[in-house]
Each structure stands twice: as C-alpha cells, then as structure tokens.
Amino acid sequence: MTTATGGEWRFWYELNRGTFLAAALFAVMFAIYVSNHPAGFTPNVVQTAANKATLLAFVAMAQCLVVITAGIDLSAGMILVLSNCLASWLVVGTPLQTSLGVAAVLGAGLGCGMLNGLIIIFGRLQPIVTTIATSAIFFGLALLLRPMPGGSVNESLADVFTSKLFGIFPSSLVVLAATILLVWVPFSRSVYGRAAYAAGSAESAAYMSGMPLKRAKLTAYTLSGLLSAMGGLYLTFFSYTGEAAFASGNAYTLYSIAAVVLGGVSLAGGKGSAIGAVFGALAFRSIGDLLFVFDLDPLWQPLFQGIVLMLAIGVGSIGLARVRNRLEWFQ
C-alpha cells in the first residue's frame, strides 16, 4: 500500500516537476526584484508587474494547448494583435455595446484558432507552415482595422480588470486564475484533453485506440485562439488603444514558446500543463523587471531575453535528446 502511494506521488511529481521549477524560478526572480525596487513590496508594485505579465501568460497558455498535441502556433501573437485592434473599435459605448464588443473579440479569437485547426487537420498541412501563413493573414486584417494607432476602450471596464481587489490584490491575476479554472482544468480532464496529450505522446497508438484525435486537436487550436484573444483584450485594457504592431506580435509568439519550455512543457508534445506555462511566463517577464530595477540600459533587454529564450529551448532540447522512450518521463 505504501509502495503504491509512493509511486503515485512520484508519478504526480514527475508530471508537475516543470511547474514547480518554473514557480520556484519566478519566486526567486520576483523576490530579487521587489527587494531592490525603490518602493519595495507594495500593492502598486505587484499590480504593475502582474498586469505586464498577464499578457504573456494568456499567450503562453494558448501556446501550451497546441504544443501538448505536438504542434506549434506561430500565429498566437498576431491573434493577440488582431484582437487588440478589434477591441479598440468594438469595446466602447454603453454596457450592452461593450459586452457585445467583448463577445465579438473573443469570438474572433475562437474563429482564428478554429481556422488554424481546420487547415492543419483537414488540409493535412504542418502546423508551423499553416500558422506562419495565417499569422500574415491576421496581421493584414489588423492593419486594415488600424493602419495607424488609435481607437479607445471602455475605461470603466478596463479599470475593473486592471485594478486591485480590495486595494491589495491585482484583478488581472484573479482573471488569470479564473481562466485556468474555467478553460484549462475542464479541457485537461476531458476526453479531448486526454486525447490531446495522447496525440503528443504517441499519435499512432492513440489513433489505433480510437481516441478522438481530430476533435481534440481542433478543440486545442480553438481554445488557443480564445486565450490569445483574451491577451489582446488585456492589451487594449492596458493601453486604451489599438495598434497593428508587427514586432509586438512576433515578440509575444517567441516569448510564449520560451514560457512554455520554462514551464516544463515538452516541445515534442505529450507533457506539461498550462499552469506551468503561466509560471514560465511570469518568470520570463520578470527579466524585464530585473533590468529595470538594476537600471540597465533598455537596449540590453532584447539581448538578455534572447539569451533566456535560447537557454530555455536548449534545455528543453537537451532533456528531449536524453529520453530514449517517452515512458522514461514517468519512471
């Protein structure tokens, strides 16, 4: 009985080891940040850091859903940009108009993700090729909506989602936690979620077992588009404007890949969780905060982030190369 229980705990730890490591890395980096910040550990400092990290966390969750199926979404950042531009047009006016605008933006994100999934599944194209092509389409649509930065957003709604609850806890982290509970947890525990993991681990065996692989992948890509759109909404809430920024879209896509690797998600698929990806995003975003608090030249920030990106992907690749059989992950 004791051996069985110990084996279960060991299996559970192996499944979540990447999440624990990402959480520990974030805790250390954030502790260094607040201990050296002129204002110290205050609600305002935590709120500012949380609001900046939430954007990347949503895109990292989106990337995670696709990566566990052994795919990749290089359009995630452009869906965020498109959603930002769309929100700057629609999330305005009366409460009813604003609510319809939010629904339209999230619906557009769902549609973008579903388009990716349909092309990959039924068009039988590689995810990397498909999402490169669709990212150009999504950016083109964003550019049509906002050839120049502009627009606005319902400031009352934006304040609700970016302020502090009870003057202490960042609202953005509450929304992030609610998203994990309402999107990730049901998906990961569903038949489609298990099939998504199976597709990333051993797709041929999963197919022979009769698992709904096509529907699982389509669900993963669709939810990925939804989460990227939530990131675009938050970008609008923070900036009060819309902008078709090509560099920003590409940056969020690349950083989301680094975040999922830092969070223990295997780029080969079949292993990891969105919670780990969120902690990976928080840790990765802390790099910029550390550069700020130590007053380093902002021109150095892309260099340090690029180094972390290379190290993150390198560590993931080394770990994958050492595995002869994916069952070794859980032994």
Explain this structure to me?
GO terms for molecular function: transmembrane transporter activity. The chain has a single domain, classed as ABC transporter involved in vitamin B12 uptake, BtuC, CATH 1.10.3470. It has 331 residues and is an all-alpha fold. A two-stranded antiparallel ribbon has the order 1-2. Strand 1 and strand 2 (169-170) form a beta hairpin. The two termini are 18 Å apart. The chain has helices at residues 2-36, 43-67, 76-90, 95-122, 127-145, 155-162, 171-189, 191-208, 213-239, 246-262, 274-293, 301-321; strands at 164-165, 169-170.
List keywords for this structure.
two-stranded antiparallel ribbon, 76% helix, transmembrane, cell membrane, ABC_transp_permease, transmembrane transporter activity
Main β sheet profile: 2 strands, antiparallel
Give the proportion of residues in helices: over 70%
Uncertain regions spanning at least 5 consecutive residues = 327-331
- Under the CATH scheme, the architecture is Orthogonal Bundle
Shape: globular
Identify the CATH class.
Mainly Alpha
Going by helix content, strand content and strand pairing, the class is mainly alpha
Strand residue content: under 5%
Distance between the termini: 18 Å
N to C succession of SSEs: HHHHHHEEHHHHHH
Indicate the CATH topology: ABC transporter involved in vitamin B12 uptake, BtuC
Radius of gyration: 20 Å
**Arithmetic mean pLDDT:** 86
GO molecular function, one term: transmembrane transporter activity
Pfam family, one: BPD_transp_2
Main location: membrane
Protein name: Autoinducer 2 import system permease protein LsrC
